[in-house]
Amino acid sequence: MTTDAQSQAVTDGFDLVIDALKLNGIDTIFGLPGIPITDLTRRAQAAGMRVISFRHEQNAGNAAAIAGFMTQKPGICLTVSAPGFLNGLTALANATTNCFPMILVSGSSEREIVDLQQGDYEEMDQLAIARPLAKAAFRVLHAEDIGVGIARSIRAAVSGRPGGVYLDLPAKLFAQTMDAEAGKRSLIKVVDPAPRQIPAQDAVQRALAMLKTAKRPLIVLGKGAAYAQADADIRALVEKTGIPYLPMSMAKGLLPDTHEQSAAAARSYVLPEADVVMLIGARLNWLLSHGKGKTWGGKDHKAWGGQKFIQIDISPQEADSNVRIDAPVVGDIGSCVSAMLGGISAMGANWPQPSADWLGAVAERKSKNIAKMAETLARNPTPMNFHSALNVMRDIIKANPDAILVNEGANALDFTRSIVDMQKPRKRLDVGTWGVMGIGMGFAVAAAVVSGQPVIAIEGDSAFGFSGMEVETICRYNLPVCVVVFNNNGVYCGTDVNPTGGPDVAPTVFVKGARYDKLIEAFGGVGVHATTPAELRKAVEEAVRSRKPTLVNAVIDETAGTESGRITSLNPTSAKKK
Ligand code: FYN
Ligand code: ADP
């Protein structure tokens, strides 16, 4: 707030944006300064907000998105116009796809010039470009409308199915002034931004009746269940019914992965064998083979088919997206699970536990896979492979249940998912629905900023490359992040060769023996080159203890790994070489 010549208190666009965010309990901005929002970053910091500056807007956007997933409040990503806005779009689209609440706020060119295409500095019709990729998109032209613009963006991001929202702020808006009192009155503190959505009783009864008569029931927990923060009720529903459950990757830890009802180690068995599958905050998309056909387990697994599906979801349109949903329960997961529990309690002791045959079959399949995995993990090859390195990481995550695990890559992702058990909810943050590379450092920064907990980022060497420059950001804010790069010299692995014998290396290989650990040393962080499990263990344990920004270059056998990890079939390869 400033005072003009008539000594009447005035406010301006900068302060109205800041006051509107703070009024709604938003205290952090992830962004990158530049025209026309540099002063907004300065003023926001001066007003007591945390302003975390990145090196590329995509990483700031990913940080905002995962902050939204972790807190149920929209993460704010602030970018410059045109190219900075475009850099943020991948993260906005990814947030919308993953149902993460975030708001991409970008400075922009003036409407009158853009609409006449008169060639402004960074001229672009950003609102039109953002709309298809966002859950909602708004533009504010007048200072007195900033309160409404921020309020609408917050409500759009977190109400119903959460998602990414775009808010367009043309440069001239920031310098607009208005009476301070009127400005204050124009701001809106959003009341109940994510209202509970209570399921219909008949829908709950229909679902319970189906679950009760199931011979081989299965519960699938998706990242929507993790986001809902209804942890105790979700655990109670699983344990009261005794039904085996399958956690999708970002739902791991809702119940400890070591829980006796976890069917994760029998995934390809339980999915086609179950006769009733209850989806809680999980979509029947590619990750669940669209509820039909072959699971990812490969050739010898039975195809899905003929199951009955119960789907608990806040989106009424999600049902029947791939196969018929026999019992849709529409509402927020907290309300739906609580209603289900109420219905089960009303039945008293009459709730039937699943048959011993079913539980026995699941347990048998699970123990077979666990034994097979244990055998693999016990090997200690030189150089390390994914399994021997992850045997170390598994122990360290187990010893630090409050630490947050960020994970991306192909083999580095798939092997970590099945080897590293999670014990608490919202502690595994990964590539999500799109399987997108590049989320690593943005997620790691946000996880450390939001939680204050140690963050361990297990990165494929290719995946790390997308956001690796942010190790400077990690050092600049002295964040307790330990990045472990699984370095096998290339995308998937490092053995491809150029068939022509020409000077260019194969498209999938990197510099052999690259020393990623040297990168963080340039910014004062701790770099460690680890060639054995013992060296890896020592480096990561020290990083967690010291909370110093650390990058461990873990040397992995360059022949280890398959094309695209567990989803090789999605990456058509040319006919086998002669
Ligand atoms: C799982 N498994 C285990 C365990 N956990 N065995 C022993 N112990 C434990 N703890 C078994 C599980 O039963 C499966 O064996 C196998 O390990 C794999 O388990 P996973 O990973 O849970 O299952 P699957 O089939 O891979 O899941 C399909 C998928 C998953 C599509 C959901 O692959 C996935 O989320 N992929 C993401 C891919 C991605 O986004 N990549 C990023 C870009 S890649 P079986 O039951 O015997 O089959 C760029 O190239
Ligand atoms: P996963 O990839 O883990 O299977 P998805 O992202 O496919 O999870 O599915 C998440 C689902 O959860 C989405 O359909 C979304 O509508 C739903 N969802 C997200 N938050 C809530 C909530 N609070 N209550 C109910 N459903 C939710």
Describe this structure in words.
- The chain is an alpha/beta fold and 578 residues long.
- It has three domains: 10-186, 3-Layer(aba) Sandwich (Rossmann fold); 201-361, 3-Layer(aba) Sandwich (Rossmann fold); 379-577, Rossmann fold.
- Helices cover 39% and strands 16% of the residues.
- It contains 22 helices and 20 strands.
- The strands form four sheets. The protein has a six-stranded parallel beta sheet, sandwiched between helices. A six-stranded parallel beta sheet has the order 16-15-17-18-20-19, sandwiched between helices. Strands 11-10-12-13-14 form a five-stranded parallel beta sheet, sandwiched between helices.
- Strand 3 (28-31), helix 2 (38-46) and strand 4 form a beta-alpha-beta unit.
- Helix 3 packs across helix 18 (440-451), helix 10 packs across helix 14 and helix 12 packs parallel to helix 14.
- The longest helix is centred in the middle third of the chain and has 23 residues, at 356-378.
- The protein is globular and about 80 Å long.
- It starts with a strand and ends in a 23-residue tail after the last strand.
- Residues 98-99, 161-162, 222-224, 227-228, 248, 250-251, 281-283, 285, 287, 313-315, 318, 332-333, 433 line the site of adenosine-5'-diphosphate.
